[in-house]
Task: structure prediction
Amino acid sequence: MSSDHVDQLLTGALIDNDVLSAHPDYTAVLIAATGLEPGPSSATSEALLLQAEAFAAEFASIGDLGEAAAIAPWRAAYASFGVKPRHARSSVESLLRRAGSGLPRVDRLTDTYNAVSVLQLTPIGGEDLAGYVGAPRLAFAVGDEQFDTMADGEPLIDHPDAGEVVWRDDLGVTCRRWNWRQCVRTRLTNTTADALFIIDGLGPDSRARATTCADALIAGLA
Result:
């Protein structure tokens, strides 16, 4: 992928003003990583996942996960567009809840950003740049946008609920409910060499948390 294309994608990325007005303590950090070595889970990604699982077990001992400083702002954000915890949770909360029985082993890139997400208590999304049509944008959904997903093992075109916060490009929604579920079109695979990682920071320390998370992710990918 050419550097000009990557530069255009990053410089064209934006957060709609309506989202910023509703969530002024939100920060996004986008990282474009090219020339990656894709493939199945590796010894390095496994070590990161084990570290993340141990951290999650210790973190779970603090009490109610939903009241934790890193999780509560996401609970409130989801509630603001009508989503209760039993229906959908931020990606980082979902990972923390799964860690007790073992984080998923998917591929080395996905394993790495999932592990860093848990260790930094910050949502991260990983996207294949080859699947993008136009620049990424965070916006309130109208409700008629296309979201390609899977249901019962079969491809399905779904639509977000009107008013939910979504990441999208020119073709449709790339991630529903901020960071809850990615579409099929842009998800990472065992052949992904050029990827976009989206780090979502929310809360009073969102900028510092997102920046620290970005540094950790870059180190993990390297």
Summary: The two ends are 19 Å apart (CA to CA).
